[in-house]
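Handout, section 4.2: multi-component inputs.
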Amino acid sequence: MNETTPAQDIKQDLISLFRQHTGLLETGSGHIMNLYREQAFNDFDRLGIPTTRNEAYKYTPLEKYLNGNYDVELNVNPFKVDISTIFKCDIPELDTHVVLVLNGFYYAGNLPGIFPPGVIICGLNEASTRFPDIFHKHYSQYADTSADGLVALNTLFAQDGVFIFVPRNTVIEKPIQIINLSHSDKNLRLTRRNLIVAEENSKVDVVLCDHTLSNHSYLANSLTEVFAGENATVNYNRLQNENTLSTQINNLFIHQLGNSRFTGNSISLHGGLVRNNFYATLGGRGCETNLYGLFLCDDSQHVANFILINHASPECTSNQLFKGILEGDATGAFNGKILVQPDAQKTQAYQKNNNILLSPDARMNTKPHLEIYADDVKCSHGATVGQLDPEAMFYLRSRGIGEKDARLLLMFAFAQEIVSKITVPLLQERITELVEKRLKGELSKCNNCDIRCG
Amino acid sequence: MLIIKDLHVSIDGKEILKGINLTVKAGEVHAVMGPNGSGKSTLAAALVGRELFEITSGSVTYQGENLLEMSTEDRARKGLFLGFQYPVEIPGVSIVNFMKTAINEHRKFKGMDPISASDFLKLMRDKKDLVGLHTSLANRSVNEGFSGGEKKKNEIFQMAILEPTLAILDETDSGLDIDAMKTVAGGVNKLRRKDNATIIITHYQRLLDYIIPDFVHVLYKGRIVKSSGKELALELEEKGYDWLNQESE
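Output:
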């Protein structure tokens, strides 16, 4: 008798699911999206679900989370209720172009607003048929399905998400806010796929938030590809705030051309398991890449950030700064890799990961990884795992600040270093409030949202 | 205001203070002097409730209450203040936020409403001028990247904001140039009132040229071996601490 492992079982289930629904998937999706499914299938079949034996997933026990009964929605669910009755975000205050995505599908009622000529914001599937030239040039060009089974899995099941195209010399003033809504009366498996293309000299701010609208378990496999052309600026702010039954796998692939700037900021406030993979390729002279992340976890939550910055060109700069506060039995992982290619001279690459453990059972694994093949580079890395500074605690208390408030002040200060790097000022204020509430143990739901997503 | 009786304090089982007796009344300034390692900072730390220091026997009464039973924060709320020898850097916490939180905790303790924004701004402005703290420093993180002199000024600034009943200044003069010391001393003098008291802990006499004490105590090997008026400070300056060795043995 052949014993199978949970990871193998999940893989087999997903393969049969795909075989069973290939027709439905393909007729529901644009031709270009279907082009990549065969390769994705072969890659997934070969790689399967990463287990803890895989170095990159050593501290993220996925099997435990991916197991279980999940429904899948393979065709656009004409959502029965008016979306505005279940969801309100304080949009006027944030002043963004809002785009809603429901269970992975671009919401047909989206009215993102008025944009400069040539800008496209629409559903991914719609883009694949309406703008085949642009789409074909970028779709699945940066996400490498051959190295990670979950990337292959996303490409295999990808159907929809958000497509953003900013033509050359165009600046979108207001941020585009993508809100991923999860709503179901059953546990649900979701696939989300976004593509952001910013041509040369363009600029765009993207804000991505999640909301779980019911207390079911959501298992989301999300993948976003970002292309930043010559001298383009892309700011990508990710707010993760889902219920603790949720599992989120996020892959972000960034491809940059010369002198472009990308800043990514991931704030993980809530979630059962959150796995963020960042892959940036600095593909032209003078690129700048900044990746920032903050994660606050308690109970038995797990947040893992995995980063690979590929310095493929000379004179590029990259910064990684990730900070975590862990409580209860929470576990976290940080794995940051800097790869400097042989001709990437004058590279400057910096990495820092600081963590605070508030309880004896919380655990953090952190691993810097530098691979440098050029000789004229400046690289640094540093990681700390510790407690709140007892000297600082005493100093605050000696001024009459109680222990609880002193702890809050210090935790907040620790977190604020990341929040202060958010590129959208109003969002920064909002997230400051959310982080404060989160640290106080109050529910960090959005103020005007009817549904508690905590 | 403060009555210390036969106070014994140990750290890691090693006795540092071996029976301190000291009484401080409202309106007085006391200087505690002594060589390095005599237990001066231990006395300060024990009075504000540092957990590392174990009180093995003795009593401390502050305004009629048992000080040793109070938490550090309650001691502060009841008007006890320590000017740290080594002020702590707290990245990310601005002085403004720090002081606002502290004031409101003091006010809450007294059953008062939080301070209004305009009152707080005025208070910050007035006290900044009093101690000569540069405006740009007040908006920065607590002590982060401050020079030694700026850190000490910041201590006196906090003291001015919190208006303590009993202030203990631990080596406030160390690391200060003469101008900074004059500013710091000026601040302390301006805060002197009939109803408050100050204990100045120092190794050198020079600060006492600017803050005139009513009493000078010499702490040596964990005991107060001599108490007298301000002239004792000058004597110590002249003779150093070596003569104490013969006298105490």
